[in-house]
UniProtKB/TrEMBL annotation, chain A:
This is Delta(3)-Delta(2)-enoyl-CoA isomerase. It is an enzyme of class 5 (isomerase). InterPro entries: Enoyl-CoA_hydra/iso (IPR001753). One of its GO terms (molecular function) is delta(3)-delta(2)-enoyl-CoA isomerase activity. Pathway: Lipid metabolism; fatty acid beta-oxidation. Keywords: Fatty acid metabolism, Isomerase, Lipid metabolism. GO terms for biological process: fatty acid beta-oxidation. It comes from Arabidopsis thaliana x Arabidopsis arenosa. It catalyses: a (3Z)-enoyl-CoA = a 4-saturated (2E)-enoyl-CoA; a (3E)-enoyl-CoA = a 4-saturated (2E)-enoyl-CoA. PANTHER family: ENOYL-COA DELTA ISOMERASE 3, ENOYL-COA HYDRATASE-RELATED. Belongs to the enoyl-CoA hydratase/isomerase family.
TrEMBL record, chain B:
This is Delta(3)-Delta(2)-enoyl-CoA isomerase. It comes from Arabidopsis thaliana x Arabidopsis arenosa. Its EC number is 5.3.3.8. It is an enzyme of class 5 (isomerase). The lineage of its organism: Eukaryota, Viridiplantae, Streptophyta, Embryophyta, Tracheophyta. One of its GO terms (molecular function) is delta(3)-delta(2)-enoyl-CoA isomerase activity.
Length: 238, 240
């Protein structure tokens, strides 16, 4: 499902397997637990790189699982939306720089997961960003919109992402200021580039708590929605 | 400490001497009283302020060495800078920072508190150094950063990589308005811009009020003291 590996200063979080890496209560719990693990093992100079195997980074929530409950579908959707919030909160609060290396498509909550990282690298040759909600008639949770507003500056870019139903390729996403890079062909190329960035950030040996505190202060409205206020932050010993 | 020159309708405020122009209580008091002097000048509603400096530094931030000897001085310096920035934000005239040297942390905030930032490209950088030196960033600094730097990626680069932003990079990031070949050229350009603005006319008082509205989020932080230093934005209940 997902693994966490430490190589030098870099933590590698990988969504394993050749499937769509849909977020389901079990995957959500797994990812959350691995992020907590990374946090507890963090030291000065730690960096997180998140990537996936196969065609998808993540294709969003497990809608099939929700629908299989028949009348209980809406309840299951609510449960996933609610339980996913702490994942984004954990990323916003992580005491180290975070980089998403998109091996493939990122849609809906999968895209939100990507955007919650400090840096997002896409492939040039493959993979799209897609906020599918407008096409499938699903409302977008308020904290998703808050994340888009926090990370994407231009009104036009926000519209393209949230309202157009467009599948944005790497080039487009860079032009719109949604991702940092789409310069590499192949998943390996992207990972290599993110490792390179990761190593240069790690070399700064920044204090993770200071880093996380400054990061949170960049996105006050989003943090408020993710219930990440100064009061309920877990303090951490390194 | 600082000098004030009047050139026609231009006020030129200069941080004098060859040092780092660290924002210690004395310099901050001096700057504040000079700004008050400018404000009470009869012609102020049809003027422009240019702030610049001598030497290698615009300002290298708070006097941290001083703060180490007496921690209460940190609070005092922050409080004085807040008041100075609040004064700049309400000043009834356009303001231009002619950045002729390094501007770090609080010094960078001072530069960015001006309406226009003109900078030399041959030397010097804007540097929010706090991440590198493990210093807490006051919530009101972040409010100014959020208002003045439009691109989320640029904000991230400035705050989360502690980027040393040279003038040309600053222009690309949308932090610096324009870049020039030398300190002298930068000041000259600021004077020229100031004169063009004055030619345009307009009421400085209205200008000042409009600027306050634009920078409302910063004023909320500068006027109300937030002792906890938390970065939680106070919800004033009104939405612009």
């Amino acid at each position: 499902m997902c693994t966490l590996e430490k190589r030098g200063d870099l933590f590698h979080l990988t969504l394993t397997g050749d499937d769509e890496h849909r977020f389901h209560p079990d995957t959500i719990a797994s990812v959350l637990s691995l992020l907590e693990q990374a946090k507890s093992q963090s030291t000065k100079g730690s960096v997180l790189i998140t990537t996936g195997h196969g065609k998808f980074f993540s294709n969003g929530f497990d809608l099939a699982w929700a629908q299989s409950a028949g009348h209980g579908a809406i309840e299951r959707m609510h449960q996933m939306v609610k339980s996913f919030k702490p994942v984004l909160a954990a990323l916003l609060d992580l005491p180290m720089p975070t980089i998403a290396a998109l091996n493939g498509h990122a849609a809906a909550s999968g895209l939100m997961f990507a955007l919650s990282h400090d840096y997002v690298f896409m492939r040039k040759d493959r993979g799209v960003l897609y906020m599918s909600e407008v096409d499938i008639g699903l409302p977008v949770p308020d904290y998703f919109s808050a994340l888009v507003v926090a990370k994407v500056g231009s009104g036009i870019a926000r519209r393209e992402l949230l309202l157009s139903g467009k599948k944005l390729k790497g080039e487009d996403a860079v032009a719109l200021g949604i991702v940092d890079s789409a310069a590499h062909d192949s998943a390996e190329g992207v990972v290599e580039a993110t490792v390179s960035l990761g190593e240069s950030l790690a070399a700064k040996k920044w204090n993770g708590e200071v880093y996380a505190s400054i990061r949170r202060s960049l996105y006050p409205e989003l943090c408020r929605m993710l219930e990440l206020t100064a009061n309920n932050l877990a303090t951490h010993n390194h | 400490m600082c000098s004030l020159e009047k050139r026609g309708r231009l006020f030129i405020l200069k941080l004098t001497g060859d040092g780092e122009h660290r924002l210690n209580p004395t310099l901050l008091d001096s700057l504040r009283s000079t700004i008050n002097q400018i404000r009470s000048d009869q012609s102020s509603s049809q003027s422009v302020l240019i702030t610049t400096s001598d030497g290698k530094f615009f300002s290298n931030g708070y006097d941290l060495a001083l703060a180490e000897t007496n921690p209460s001085l940190s609070v005092l310096m922050d409080s004085k800078l807040r008041s100075l920035v609040a004064d700049l934000i309400s000043l009834p005239m356009p303001t231009i920072a002619a950045v002729t040297g390094h501007a770090s942390a609080a010094g960078c905030i001072l530069a960015m508190s001006h309406d226009y930032v003109l900078m030399r490209r041959d030397r010097g950088f804007l540097y929010m150094s706090e991440l590198d030196i493990e210093l807490k960033v006051p919530a009101w600094f972040m409010a100014l950063i959020r208002v003045k730097i439009g691109s989320p990626a640029a904000r991230r680069d400035v705050m989360l990589t502690a980027a040393k932003v040279t003038a040309d990079v600053g222009v690309k990031m949308g932090i610096v308005d324009s870049a020039y070949g030398s300190a002298a050229e930068t000041v000259e350009a600021a004077v020229k811009l100031g004169e063009e603005i004055i030619q345009r006319g307009g009421d400085g008082h209205v200008y000042g009020m409009m600027r306050e509205t634009l920078l409302r989020e910063v004023l909320v932080h500068t006027i109300g003291e937030d002792e906890s230093g938390s970065s939680v934005v106070r919800n004033t209940g009104s939405k612009l």
